[in-house]
């Protein structure tokens, strides 16, 4: 299966990227995280969501079995790529229509608390479709990291996450 990220003629990077895959071997469920234009998409997969389309359930089950194959790394790696390609396809139009961020730089706050959307993938009439589970409200992360007092210095500057800009990263 070819990767839908870009054709061989494209010179630009795709507008999205995978961040992580979380797989549950026993239940054959998965969660895939994708970042696009500074927004985070959390995509959940479950066999129950394909129960009305036996051919899609069979394809999903086979991909998940191969992804979780601990005996053959090559099969597992190829199946993971195939699963990602298959799942991302219905999101391409959504990603293209997303509005870009209103500024050219990313702040630490943007990185720590991106706008987040949760989707379920469901099978209907022989095709997979993304369904918005719910919009996740923007939340601040819990304050701080435990750092021993002896490691802190009064000479250190203090910044708020929205003040820190990463000018090397473009959305």
Care to give the gist of this entry?
The protein contains four helices and seven strands.
Please name the defining characteristics of this protein:
single chain; 171 residues; alpha+beta; 5-stranded mixed sheet; two-stranded antiparallel sheet; 4 helices
How are the secondary structure elements laid out?
Blueprint: E1 16-24, E2 29-36, E3 39-45, H1 54-67, H2 73-88, H3 92-97, E4 106-107, H4 108-112, E5 115-124, E6 127-136, E7 165-166
Helix pairs in contact: 1-2
Distance between the termini: 27 Å
**Main sheet: strand order:** 1-2-3-5-6
Provide a count of the helices: 4
Which structural class fits the helix and strand makeup?
A: alpha+beta
Tell me what you see in this structure.
- It is built from four helices and seven strands; from the N terminus they run βββαααβαβββ.
- The chain is of the alpha+beta class and 171 residues long.
- It has one domain (16-166).
- Helix 1 packs across helix 2 (73-88).
- The two termini are 27 Å apart.
- Residues 1-11 have low confidence and may be disordered.
């Amino acid at each position: 299966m070819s990767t839908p990220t870009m054709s061989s003629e494209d010179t630009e990077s795709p507008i999205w990227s995978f961040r992580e895959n979380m797989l549950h071997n026993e239940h054959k469920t998965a969660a895939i995280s994708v970042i696009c234009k500074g927004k985070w998409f959390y995509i959940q997969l479950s066999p129950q969501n394909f129960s009305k389309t036996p051919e899609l359930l069979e394809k999903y089950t086979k991909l998940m079995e191969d992804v979780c194959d601990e005996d053959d790394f090559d099969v597992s790696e190829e199946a993971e790529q195939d699963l990602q390609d298959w799942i991302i396809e219905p999101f391409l139009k959504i990603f293209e229509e997303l509005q870009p961020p209103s500024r050219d730089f990313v702040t630490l706050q943007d990185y720590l608390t991106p706008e987040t959307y949760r989707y379920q993938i469901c099978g209907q009439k022989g095709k997979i479709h993304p369904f918005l589970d719910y919009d996740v409200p923007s939340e601040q992360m819990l304050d701080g990291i435990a750092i021993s007092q002896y490691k802190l210095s009064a000479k250190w500057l203090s910044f708020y996450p929205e003040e820190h800009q990463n000018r090397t990263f473009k959305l």
